[in-house]
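Table S2 (text version). Query chain:
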Amino acid sequence: MGTAVARVTLTTVMAAFFAGLALDIAVPAVVLSVMAGSNWLVQVWPESRDRAGPQPQRWKGRPA
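Corresponding structure-token output:
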């Protein structure tokens, strides 16, 4: 009886560990995807609003 409880407990602990490991990869991937999407939206959305008018000049920074 003791080994059955130990096996169930060990299986539960291992499942929780590997589920946490998967979340450790998935959550940062989702956060980075949202950040990249919002960056793209901020860069593209103002240009797509007024396609009829002249194209705005993009800032490219100072030359090095």
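Notes on Table S2: The chain has a mean pLDDT of 83. The chain is about 75% helix and 0% strand.
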